[in-house]
Amino acid sequence: MKNVVPLISALALAGCSTLSVNQAIVPLQSATAQMIGLASSDELTISNVKESEPDRLGAQTLTYTATTTKGRVFECQANQMPGLLLAKPQLSNPTCRPIQVHK
């Protein structure tokens, strides 16, 4: 019976899924554009996306640079929670701080 609990836990976590850095760019771009107040995510470029090591629950922090077409640059981060079994991974709303306001 003692061996069953770890086995069930391992099987439950085996179904966890996360977004790769490349898969996370589109939802990050959309959420960041909305947060900054842009009319469209086409006015924003996401670059330098880095992910932290997963914590015990598989959550990761994604950090990235967001640059608007008008030259404003932001340093941003969002948290990613893995999806369990068939659920999709979830990204938190990003938080950004301006680095450069104008070129």
Describe this structure in words.
This protein has 103 residues and is α+β, with helices and mostly antiparallel strands. The chain has a single domain, classed as Nuclear Transport Factor 2, Chain: A (Roll), CATH 3.10.450. It is 26% helix and 33% strand. The chain contains 2 helices and 5 strands. It has helices at residues 4-14, 21-36; strands at 44-51, 60-68, 73-81, 90-91, 95-100. Strands 1, 2, 3, 4 and 5 form a 5-stranded antiparallel sheet that branches. The longest helix is centred in the first third of the chain and has 16 residues, at 21-36. The mean pLDDT is 83.
Shape call: elongated
Distance between the termini: 64 Å
**SSE class:** alpha+beta
| Quaternary structure of the protein | single chain
SS elements, strand count? 5
CA radius of gyration: 17 Å
> What's the overall average pLDDT, rounded?
83
**The CATH class:** Alpha Beta
In the predicted model, the low-confidence regions spanning at least 5 consecutive residues are: none
Beta fraction: 25-35%
Number of domains: 1
| Number of H/I helices | 2
Helix content class: 25-40%
Characterize the main sheet.
5 strands, antiparallel
Per CATH, which architecture? Roll
Tell me the CATH topology: Nuclear Transport Factor 2, Chain: A
Give me the strand/helix succession: HHEEEEE
